Amino acid sequence: MQSGNITDYIKVKKIREGVDAINTLPTIPVTLEKIFSILEDENKSARDLENIIKYDQSLSAKIISVSNSAFYGLRMQITTISRAVVAIGFTEVKNLAISVALMNFFKTKAKFPGFSVDKFWLHSIGVGIVSRMIARISANIDAESLFTCGIVHDIGRVALCAYFPEEFKAILDIKNQENCSMLEAEERYGLKHTLVGRWLAEKWQFPEAFVQTISCHHHPYEQKTFLTAAGIVQLADILVHRTGVGEEPDDSLTWSVSSLKDLELTEDYVSGVEEGLYSLKDVIKETWGSLISV
Ligand SMILES: [Fe+2]
Ligand SMILES: [Fe+2]
Fold it and tell me: What is the distance in A from the centroid of ligand 1 to the CA of 246?
């Protein structure tokens, strides 16, 4: 804490220790809770998902719009959620529904001078797309779930912005005064987005892979055990920052040689993904940028 009286100190201390976090953070939005219940129940079908989405007009309109975008390159025109399920698949519609529901929820809440929530989501989407790309070739892991892991990886930052505005302002002040990255500013202040994200993920009862990714995507080793999803997202996060999809570059982020080894990836492969991302960048911005800013 840079300045302030003893009351401020106690308040910040309580937040840092998570004492006040549970009360300050919101309850999970109803639509998102319903989508998660489908995610965790093998008996639920595409029809159950359609029934949830169709009652949320904004959600269904955005999913249909993304399905018709250049990103999927479909020849047919998608006009309903059930057609979207047939054309791009049940899992993909689930992924889109989670992403759009999160964006819709934080859209009105996370407004803060000096922080672009639009760029934040573009970054998160870029990380989702690249994480899935890497997961498809690198490890024995459900690649499709990596898209959503990427979408939620920095959720703590948008939660900080929306629900801890004083603390978020202090972090932005440190970033500007010391000309450092957001992550470094959070570390100096003593309240990282990975921790706030963990509180939110636990309160909202996210699946365990999401909780691990949110908490550990900057340090994917927990007690020397490599967390594959967190490791993939760390790599994707760095590549997305480098190529400038969404948020500004962050040179302080690096991956380790052992991470690549654990993911069974080579430097050449990573360079190839980076090159591919440069050509995909405009499509990502075009497809998602218009949705995010609506
Ligand atoms: Fe992060
Ligand atoms: Fe990130």
Answer: 13
For position 139, what pLDDT does the model report? 66
Map residue 115 onto helix, strand or coil: strand
- What DSSP element (H or E) covers 226? strand 225-226
Phi-psi region at 143: left, alpha or beta (left = phi > 0; alpha = psi -120 to 50): alpha
- Give me ligand 2 centre to Cα 44, in Å: 31
Which pLDDT value is given to residue 71? 84
Q: Rounded CA gap, 51 and 55, in Å? A: 7
Residue 151 has what pLDDT?
94
Contacts of 136 (CB under 8 A, 6+ apart): 143
CA atoms within 13 A on the CB side of 25: 25
DSSP-assigned letter for residue 112 = B
All residue ranges of the chain with pLDDT < 70 are 1-8, 11, 19, 139, 294
Cα 80 to Cα 31: distance, rounded to the nearest angstrom: 18
Q: Please tell me the distance from the alpha carbon of residue 145 to that of residue 87, in angstroms, as a whole number.
A: 19
Q: Name the residue type at position 266.
A: T
- The rounded distance, in Å, linking the Cα atoms of 217 and 231 is 6
Angle 201-203-207 from CA coordinates, rounded to 5°: 45
Q: Which residue in this structure is represented by tokens 């967190």? A: 230
Give Dmax (Cα) for the chain: 63
Distance 6 CA to ligand 2 centre (A): 33
Cα(275) to centroid(ligand 1), Å: 22
Domains of the chain: 27-109 (no CATH), 110-294 (1.10.3210.10)
What pLDDT was estimated at residue 294?
58
- Predicted confidence at residue 15, as pLDDT, reads 73
